[in-house]
Amino acid sequence: MPQFDPAIPIYRQIMDEISGQIISGKLKAGGQLPSVRELAQTFQVNPNTIARAYRELEREGIVFTRRGQGTFVSEEKETFANLKRERAETIIGGFFRDMSSLGFRKQESLALAREFTKEEGD
Amino acid sequence: MEHALRAHNLTKRYGHTLALCGLNLEIPKGKIVALLGPNGSGKSTLLKLFAGLIHPTAGEALVLGERAGVETKSKVAYVPEFNHLYRWQTVDEATRLAMKFFSDLDYELAQKLIAEMQLEPGLKIGSLSKGMHARLKLALALARTAPVLLLDEPLSGIDPQSRRKILTALVDTYRPGEQTIILSTHQVLESEATFDQVLFLQDGELVLWGDADELRREHNSSIEDLFAKIYQ
Amino acid sequence: MYTITLLGHELKKRQLPIVLTLLAIGALYLYSFSLLNKLTDQAQVLVLPVFALVFPLVLWTLWNHWQSLREEWQERTTHLLFSFPVRGWQVLLAKGGAAAISFVLFTLLSAFLGGALVVKVFNSIPGEISQEELWHFLFSDGSKLYLQYLLMTLSFIGFSQLAFVLGQLAPRWHGIFSTGGFLVILYLVGKLMIWLRPVFSILPHVNLEFGSGGFNPWYTVALFLFSLIAAGTASWLLDHKVDF
To answer: How far apart are the first and last CA of chain B?
Structure first.
């Protein structure tokens, strides 16, 4: 059970959690998501919040619902690529934000990152 | 759309103290609402008005469109902050008594919840600890299919384990869409993920009201921190 | 239906004091029977149970009924009781009914044992009345007097219900206001009775078969009717004015 950060909308955190599972392959394209009730119980979160996360995910095209059957991960290949790209952008954005708070400008941060990858022997 | 609960210019005066002054609010069906506020802000008064246990000085409290009173009591499960069960009864006797008055009480579900709350049907209510009382009261309320559930401080003054059990049972038995729950609480952090709307009361007035996640986004903070900011 | 459920609930709650009182009544008569052979004037044996039972039983019943109301407020079980979809009259009728039932049980037991004692005493006096005649008088006259006694007790219960509820409307010192209210109600009812006296004196009296006595039953009947009004008012106040 993940710990939620109460300062961030919880439905957003659930969306991120599910997207993360899709990217990591835990949830396969076309695979079924747990029911709202099941997820509410595992996360110990209000079912309305889970339902809202599912609705938002559906609006973004990441999942779709089949009437009476449940919610499934989208089978479109772009979805997966987009998710991955979005996640990468978030991570990079966070990197530059953190670096700038340390006083590095973008170019300096990039240079440092390059050096870092050399040291790692990439 | 018909609202689960509605207050219209709701005012309650006790002698010289004004507990609620001209409250207007509408709570949609199928939400879990946290009622937040310091002591004496009017939380218990508001819940009791909706439970039909006290009478408004002015204005009205509506439950599913009907004025709160004897007729609405079968649609409301009310749990006060203190022990309101008969001390001379056993857990099972209290269940059976409630069942005689509430046809929506599912005895088997009650037994299941009582077991999950680690209570014995044969225990005397007078011998229960505060945490056990809190768990029993909640089990009896959750065993009903009443569309409105009013919980007054279900988490206050009890051990963390009881609090966790209560929140788990609440989420597990909650019927989205059908049931409307208002819970007043001080334990905001622990229940952050439980409610989807928030009502902030202060001195008998509504100071802030909205969707929990929207408030988190707008104020960039947890409801707990927002609570601290409002009432500092 | 709810009234019956509430009545059952009340009786169950009070079962221990009820059983103990019945046992105490039995013990008192047993003691009186045992005194029969020791006393020279056997009629003396009647003094103890009659005095011990007539007045104390009324007070004991009133006290128990008052306690059953007071406990609900003190233990805050009113929040359970009035969260049920019941009306004030159902709660008060159940409480009054439980008091009435326990009172009838106490008094019927003591009336029966007392009757047996009376018959035994009179039996030992060589006399003009046969045992059958004695039982007949005890039954016919006794039941008329008993009804008075019962109505009077029920009336006090009704008045005490109104007094109790009035006390709850006070912002504080509920007990003092209740007790004061009870005295005021009794005073007002007394005044009313005096005022109604000319009416009652025209109405027919009830004659007793034993001897040539009789009594005016209308005071008790009126008292009972007033107490019904009082209890009805108390019920209305519970539904519309009292906050829990």
So the answer is: 37
Neighbouring CB atoms inside 10 A of B185's CB total 22
One domain for residues A42 and A91: no
Put simply, whether C243 touches B (Cβ < 8 Å) is yes
> How far does chain C reach from its first CA to its final CA, in angstroms?
24
Looking at the structure of chain A, the number of domains it has is 2
B97, C107 contact by CB (below 8 A)? no
DSSP string, C54-107: HHHHHHHHHHHHHHHHHHHHHTTTHHHHTTSS--HHHHHHHHHHHHHHHHHHHH
Question: B97 at the C interface (CB within 8 A)?
Answer: yes
The residues, any chain, with a CB within 8 Å of residue A86's CB and separated by 6 or more, are A19
pLDDT, tens only, C162-178: 999 999 998 889 999 99
Q: Over 60: is that where the pLDDT of C120 sits?
A: yes
Q: Looking at the predicted structure, is the pLDDT value of residue B87 above 80?
A: yes
Report residue B61 as tokens: 């409290």
Select from B151, B141, B160 the least CA-distant residue to B195.
Answer: B151
Residue A34 shares a structural domain with residue A55: yes
Tell me how far apart the alpha carbons of residues C70 and C182 are, in angstroms, rounded to a whole number.
14
What pLDDT digit, counting tens, does each position of C39-54 carry? 777 677 777 777 777 7
| Domains within chain B, CATH numbers bracketed | 5-231 (3.40.50.300)
Cβ contact B84–C243 (<8 Å): no
Do chains B and C touch by CB distance (3+ pairs < 8 Å)?
yes
Contact of B22 with B192, CB cutoff 8 Å:
no
3-state secondary structure of B19: strand
Q: What is the pLDDT of residue C128?
A: 66
**Alpha carbon of residue C229 to chain centroid:** 17
A71 CB within 8 Å of a chain B CB: no
- From A46's Cα to the closest Cα of chain B, the distance in A is 5
